[in-house]
Design goal:
12 helices; OB fold (Dihydrolipoamide Acetyltransferase, E2P); 444 residues; 4 domains; alpha/beta; single chain; Rossmann fold
Length: 444
């Protein structure tokens, strides 16, 4: 019996094209293609269709709208370009084509490859390691700007700094930002700024441009100078889509020079708002404190009225007067007794004339009088000391002592004490009572 011949597998055209498409797309990775633009068509859909050709061949290409929006130059027929694309097949017509992901002018291609090679090498060295990035000072004393003195970048930076914090000093280090001399001059400016130490933070900036225009910021000497600089560096180079080696080496990257100025400068309006909030909080707490102290003073005044030292002094003074009267009476009584005794002794003396005994009695009387005077003086001194102590205690709690420590009392024209800002009006005249004298003030 003859062997059966297997049925041949029959492909439809669509299936064949789809299979070929799968093989083509899986067989080629994303690649770069350089060639000359021709047959460029840009329909209303926003997609671009064109061919890339050289001396011996050409290939159809498609660049879809979402990718076309990222092209930064105006393409035209005859222009030499470099395209990053994937190989594919247009199934409906069976046409082999390139789906372009990115396209740039051919002159930028060599620069782009040099950029990527330097990027890989410096990244391998750890030059872009985030661990080396330094924080920006919150309130810098001075900001240094390394850029062209005549470019738009310096005008944008100064305008932003003036708007956000006009009191912040700015030091400009003018350098060329394009050309063969730009990179060494930029590195030199970083070294000079580091050596002088006048600034707390540096801005490295320039306006937008092509890859070739920005190439000075892709030089290795600039990247190493940024990392060697002890001052934090903020890069604001080109537009948001422009990435340079200097951006990667800098401590902070800003998409534009204006944003870089915003990063390094405090917001004066926000700080003023915070100061106002703190001022209101301080006033509220001070008012509460004054109210508490006022209540405490009232309590102490009430206690002082009941236990005022003056009352105790009056009682002591009355007691002193009483003791003085008793002492006087005792003295007079003692003197009378002495006179009586003296008269009696004179009588006895007259009878027996004891001159020696009389002399002793005179001395004894003088000694007793001296001891009495000393006792009186000592008693008076003790009482005077106690009176002085009570007087100093009274002075310590007196409001006048508080004024003596540097405080003052604000009084209105009517003599009312000023406790809150709402009690006065602008232009009103106030009296400031001090420990010695008074001052007249006017509210601004």
């Amino acid at each position: 019996m003859p062997a059966q011949v297997p049925e041949p597998e029959i492909y439809s055209v669509s299936r064949l094209n789809q299979a070929v498409q799968g093989h083509i797309e899986s067989g080629f990775a994303l690649l770069w293609v350089e060639g000359e633009l021709s047959n460029l068509a840009r329909p209303a859909s926003g997609h671009w269709y064109f061919s890339l050709k050289d001396e011996g061949a050409q290939v159809r290409c498609a660049l879809f709208r979402n990718r076309a929006q990222g092209v930064r130059f105006r393409p035209r027929d005859g222009m030499q370009v470099l395209a990053r694309a994937r190989v594919s097949l247009y199934v409906p017509r069976g046409d082999y084509q390139l789906i372009v992901e990115h396209m740039e002018e051919a002159g930028d291609g060599a620069l782009r490859r040099a950029f990527e090679a330097l990027h890989r090498r410096l990244e391998a060295e750890g030059l872009f390691d985030p661990a080396f990035k330094r924080p920006l000072p919150r309130f810098p004393r001075c900001v240094g700007v390394i850029t062209s003195a005549t470019g738009a970048a310096i005008r944008d930076i100064l305008a932003v700094l003036k708007r956000r914090f006009p009191a912040l000093p700015v030091m400009v280090y003018p350098v060329p930002v394009q050309g063969s001399e730009a990179a060494p001059r930029i590195a030199e400016a970083l070294e000079v700024a580091a050596a002088r130490g006048d600034c707390d933070v540096l801005i490295l900036a320039r306006g937008g441009g092509s890859l070739e225009d920005l190439w000075a910021f892709n030089e290795e000497v600039v990247a190493r100078a940024i990392r060697a600089c002890p001052i934090p560096v903020v890069s604001g180079i080109g537009h948001e889509t422009d990435i340079t080696i200097a951006d990667l080496a800098a401590d902070h990257r800003a998409p534009t020079p204006s944003v870089a100025a915003e990063l390094v400068s405090p917001d004066g309006g926000e700080l003023l708002q915070r100061v106002n909030q703190l001022e209101r909080l301080l006033c509220e707490r001070f008012s509460r404190r004054l109210l508490t102290c006022g209540q405490r003073v009232q309590i102490l005044e009430q206690r002082l009225r009941h236990q005022h030292p003056e009352r105790r002094l009056q009682a002591r003074a009355q007691r002193l007067d009483e003791l003085e009267l008793r002492l006087r009476r005792a003295l007079w009584r003692r003197l009378r007794e002495q006179r009586i005794e003296l008269a009696h002794l004179w009588t006895r003396l007259g009878r027996c004339s004891p001159r020696t005994r009389l002399t002793g009695m005179v001395h004894q009387r003088q000694d007793l009088a001296l001891r009495l005077e000393r006792a009186m003086a000592l008693r008076l001194e003790r009482l005077s000391g106690r009176v002085s102590l009570q007087a100093r205690t009274l002075h310590a709690v007196s409001p006048l002592a508080t004024l003596g420590r540097g405080y003052s009392i604000l009084l209105s024209a009517e003599g009312r004490a000023i406790r809150t800002p709402e009690q006065v009006k602008s232009g009103e005249r106030l009296e400031a009572r001090l420990a010695q004298g008074r001052l007249w003030c006017r509210v601004e």
